[in-house]
Amino acid sequence: MNEHALEAWAPRVLSILRIVAAVLFFEHGTQKLLGFPARPDGGAGPEIFSLIGASGVLELVGGALLILGLFTRPVAFVLSGEMAFAYWMAHAPKSAFPLLNGGDASILYCFVFLYIFFAGPGPWSLDAKRAGSTF
């Protein structure tokens, strides 16, 4: 592929990145709040007014909004912050190394969402449709 063709596809691939990251993130919310997929420990979900319950709500609602590409920039900003908070609260105290503390996914989500905040939703989004862009 030549450079021009790659550049032409860049906005569409941004939409694909947003959708794939959001689907994976949404799954964390469904597991926390709805028990699907089943939790490894088989336990009940978190109290809704706990930090984990609040993160489940953000993951479920924010993930759904990002899948659709609706209110993308503010949602991505909030979710990036949530992941930074999750890393420093839950993972960093366990070890200085993300591979050992289990926080590598939180770091990746944080920076993917931060990128989406700056880059926008891409053309395959409800935000683009609302702005009058064509797919």
Automatic annotation (TrEMBL):
Q: List keywords of the entry alphabetically.
A: Cell membrane, Membrane, Transmembrane, Transmembrane helix
Q: Where in the cell is it found?
A: Cell membrane
Task: Write down the InterPro entries for this protein, in alphabetical order.
Answer: DoxX (IPR032808), DoxX-like_oxidoreductase (IPR051907)
Q: What is its main location?
A: membrane
Q: Which domain of life is it from?
A: Bacteria
One Gene Ontology CC term in the entry: plasma membrane
Q: Which family does it belong to?
A: Belongs to the DoxX family.
**Protein's recorded name:** DoxX family protein
